[in-house]
Amino acid sequence: MTEKNVKLFLESEVDFTFAKTMAKIPHSWICRKDYEDSKFLKVMKFIRNNGYTEEFYNKQYIYYNINKHKYWVMTDSLGFDDSTAIINRAKITY
């Protein structure tokens, strides 16, 4: 999957949900089970393979920036086999 395809998917093809239970850490999410599995998985892999590592609450995540947002994947112990994996989005702050 190309960067252009990833950008199109994340910015135009999905509807992010605001994480209201974590309103003090504003971000939104999409869940793998709600989208075409093969495409979602390709986007997850793109983020993992092309992103950068950053620590958040003593845990390492891989982020990928597109325009004014950063995206990162969260899974359970199944990793990329987790059918409930999510991709998060937050505004980049400087």
Portion of residues within helices: 25-40%
Q: How do the helices and strands follow one another from N- to C-terminus? A: HEEHEEEE
**Biggest pleated-sheet summary:** 6 strands, antiparallel
**Number of beta strands:** 6
Number of helices: 2
**Coarse morphology:** globular
What's the N-to-C terminus distance? 29 Å
Identify the strand order in the major beta sheet: 1-2-6-5-4-3
Please give the radius of gyration in angstroms. Answer: 12 Å
Tell me about this structure.
This protein is α+β, with helices and mostly antiparallel strands and 94 residues long. It has helices at residues 3-13, 37-50; strands at residues 17-18, 28-31, 52-56, 59-66, 69-74, 86-91. The chain has one domain (3-91). Helices cover 27% and strands 33% of the residues. Strands 1-2-6-5-4-3 form a 6-stranded antiparallel sheet, with helices on one face. A hairpin with a 2-residue loop joins β3 and β4 (59-66). The protein starts with a helix and ends with a strand. The mean pLDDT is 90.
Please describe the topology of this protein.
Layout (H helix, E strand, L loop, with lengths): L2 H11 L3 E2 L9 E4 L5 H14 L1 E5 L2 E8 L2 E6 L11 E6 L3
Antiparallel strand pairs: 1-2, 2-6, 3-4, 4-5, 5-6
Task: Summarize it.
The protein has 94 residues and is an alpha+beta fold. It has helices at 3-13, 37-50; strands at 17-18, 28-31, 52-56, 59-66, 69-74, 86-91.
